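Lab notebook, bench 4. We co-purified these components, and the gel suggests they stay together. Before we commit to crystallization screens, I want a quick structural picture of the whole thing.
Request: model the full complex, all chains together.
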Amino acid sequence: MSGRIHNEALRSKVMSAPDAAALVRNGWNIGFSGFTGAGYPKDFPEALAGRIDAAHHQGEEFKVNVLTGASTAPELDGALARTGGINFRAPYQSDPEMRSAINKGISYYSDIHLSHMGPQVSQGFLGKMDLAVIEVTAITEDGELIPSSSVGMNRTYLDYADKVILEVNEWQSEELRGMHDIYYPIGALPPNRVPLPILTPSDRIGQLTLKVDPEKIIAIIVTDSPDRNTPFKPLDHDSKAIAGHLLDFLSNEVKQGRMPKNLLPMQSGVGNIANAVLAGLLEGPFENMTSYTEVIQDGMVDLLDSGKMRVASATAFSLSPTAAERLNNNAKDYRDKIILRPQDVSNHPEAIRRMGVIACNGMIEADIYGNVNSTHVMGSRMQNGIGGSGDFTRNGYFSSFVTPSTAKGGAISCIVPMVNHVDHTEHDVSVIITEQGLADLRGLAPRQRAKLIIENCAHPSFKEPLREYVKLAEKVANGLHTPHDLESALSWHIRFLKTGTMVS
Amino acid sequence: MSGRIHNEALRSKVMSAPDAAALVRNGWNIGFSGFTGAGYPKDFPEALAGRIDAAHHQGEEFKVNVLTGASTAPELDGALARTGGINFRAPYQSDPEMRSAINKGISYYSDIHLSHMGPQVSQGFLGKMDLAVIEVTAITEDGELIPSSSVGMNRTYLDYADKVILEVNEWQSEELRGMHDIYYPIGALPPNRVPLPILTPSDRIGQLTLKVDPEKIIAIIVTDSPDRNTPFKPLDHDSKAIAGHLLDFLSNEVKQGRMPKNLLPMQSGVGNIANAVLAGLLEGPFENMTSYTEVIQDGMVDLLDSGKMRVASATAFSLSPTAAERLNNNAKDYRDKIILRPQDVSNHPEAIRRMGVIACNGMIEADIYGNVNSTHVMGSRMQNGIGGSGDFTRNGYFSSFVTPSTAKGGAISCIVPMVNHVDHTEHDVSVIITEQGLADLRGLAPRQRAKLIIENCAHPSFKEPLREYVKLAEKVANGLHTPHDLESALSWHIRFLKTGTMVS
Ligand SMILES: CC(C)(COP(=O)(O)OP(=O)(O)OC[C@H]1O[C@@H](n2cnc3c(N)ncnc32)[C@H](O)[C@@H]1OP(=O)(O)O)[C@@H](O)C(=O)NCCC(=O)NCCS
Ligand SMILES: CC(C)(COP(=O)(O)OP(=O)(O)OC[C@H]1O[C@@H](n2cnc3c(N)ncnc32)[C@H](O)[C@@H]1OP(=O)(O)O)[C@@H](O)C(=O)NCCC(=O)NCCS
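Here is the predicted assembly.
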């Protein structure tokens, strides 16, 4: 029995994960906590997977819809996807088993902007929520919940679900208490929505705890398991070069008077390259920085430790195992530097636009006209999802996208004639960066962008084929605004599918 | 000499349009007033075109950059485009001559979200502004400006341009005074931006006039010319059917408790179909409606006249000649029902998201997975531009797109396997409507959307080919999330370019 449950009455609801899983019915719409490998329930999903497997062995239909904050970990997405029992998944995932179920057509996946998820659930667009399963650090005497290493969609799921299961995870440091900022008015529906009173990343506007109607709690599970995130790849030449180009660009913006000396709040996306950019900032000339972002990666913690960054606002941690351990052991020291908010606050267009956040996200590929694909491989396969990249890209001061110029050992050019899927339109992309260089697309027309992107960003081995595409397209196109030869626009992807390489 | 210029000192700056045009230099970045055929300068652009033609006849280089609020009219875009002297154009246009210059590669065009235009100019991303040319209704005694039939980018251009030319247009009713709401803090740069204090479309938050530094005024031109907008097409069977589907959908949303009885503020895009939807609302069951939109079309004025709509907030009129005349003659009667704001307020993500605006916009085509193309014809040709459709689509309560199911007499299907350009991604599109029916895409995965869009929205003559595409794609695709056959995904467009029809 956990000493983390300070509310007497709720102690009686403690049970084993399998007993809790037995309460679930076929077809339920379940909202899970969890955001980029942080704060997801650790035991319940595997127990539910067992229940689904057992039903399937009996020949019974058993499927559930899995809604989360964002990606989770093998214990949640992996365990449930493996059963084939996920009917529907939203809004973001990055687990190999989950990805496979989506791409095999076993699970339906709706790839929703993270800032849209709260409103869509509250507005009733995703159906009735049957159950919320939420990891917490502790339960207070008066039955309020101390959130754990992510906040994500928890407020919304707790408010809208008919029933609630809590996982009290004793691995999470009790000193996370005080790090969260839960702003309840964000859940209002129009015409009752009010301005979001955040002016700067350090503004605290809400309360420290999550509220829950105790009547809805049907089970409490006690666990002691670490968040599980994959470690970042060590910095290599390419990622350092990309970070260098961005730093030079930022320095010049400051010099031109287009940005304050301490920059504007930084947003940094998921993935290795985004983490490398943060490492670059550690070496850079900027002091007194702030961050208004979605996830706190290793590089962000280093920036806070160094004193170069003053405060970071996010909705979740996304730390390597060693960084997670370090943070967990020193949570108290970070409480005045880190604020974790609900994802409909961390990713809110209103806040991002007002503060002029500098957006920096990874991508799969960009095309010569500045359209960006963050999600699809060769037209049909889902990689992860758009996550919050659209929230920050559309609303930021300006938006940048980073990728190595090639993938799969040089077989794939990440700069292509036409992207195979568009997540960020030409209207939204300000800057593209590869290890080769940087293309500043602000105020440029498509043909001007093409020149810059090819000459500055494409890998040398793909530059000439791209130039040839432009030449051909300008000859055959039905208009010279965005010249395309529709017959060969996707031919690089087709070639890759047929031959395993885009090189002809 | 105009009695509209109440400031003594400024009267001395009155001159002819050609004299004013003579002050312009090659290469200038010029910000013009004008938004969907309303409030653009009427005489200066033609005089400038004359000056450019003369320079070209002398063999001199003479080009300017033309920035506006949105589209203008033949007297501005047409006159200047015809000279070949527009080097760069942003952010929206719909004039045949301008379109032709863009598609012939004579003019560069950057198709920018209308809500991004203010920030991009203020942030210095579009370069130094040399000149603002702004139509006004009158100049007050203390030198402030009474705006005319559009506000658009005027505040920003007046603030940022080095020099200013005013056109005082006596055709504009003096009783427009009192209709405008100019909110100055919207121009603040981060970290000094503050919440936009609009809670409901009728909120007035600014002042009635535009400010200008009198030192910057280099010329004032007096004109007496009407705004020139093309009349709307009469309602036909298709547009009535589309309006009917949307009305049924809205009624059901109210019935399901997902929307208040008087709906939420409506946004209605440009074009004939959008206007038809407004006509549909006139017949519909909803009372006490409001609108938070970009342009006030004929149908919106009818709704205000009928009493079914209480108030409409926009940045410009977009009226047929008869409706413009009617409004101009009775401007006083509309002053408490219509508010014209700067476009960075009318289209602000913050306001749109907070109020839960219902977005409804026209489109060129949608694909089976819910991506929408608003701008490009067959891959390369620019039609008009994205305008404000992205501002409303991304941030609204939900977003809908309307189009007849076919174009060019049935030769083109407006539902295709893959759109030839993406302006609104699958993440942003809630509802697609043609005369055939409505597809409610909320909470659906791509394969589910495809079924609905094909069965509910495609024209009967294209249904079977679309079903066949899906069958083929599911067989050959490298993943079943968004099954595509990249070899034939764009084949319908290619066929049209080769044979003049998408029918095989
Ligand atoms: C785009 C994204 C996948 C890149 O992540 P990353 O860790 O920097 O990228 P990697 O280089 O490790 O690439 C991931 C995979 O995509 C593959 N890939 C990269 N570019 C590719 C391309 N152009 N075509 C095909 N595959 C490509 C890589 O080979 C790798 O494949 P593997 O897993 O089989 O090894 C990641 O940033 C993402 O999911 N973005 C979308 C969500 C987002 O931006 N969130 C931020 C919100 S705040
Ligand atoms: C998309 C848009 C052009 C439709 O406008 P509309 O007046 O309803 O449309 P029309 O049916 O008259 O079509 C306009 C032209 O496109 C052509 N067209 C329509 N669908 C087409 C398709 N799928 N493929 C090729 N051409 C197509 C029409 O034939 C017509 O051509 P024409 O001018 O040569 O006769 C218009 O809504 C627009 O510009 N939208 C983008 C901006 C926007 O949404 N603004 C709102 C902001 S609040």
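The domain at 8-223 of chain B is CATH 3.40.1080.10 (Glutaconate Coenzyme A-transferase). Worth comparing against the SEC data before the next meeting. Chain B has a mean pLDDT of 97.
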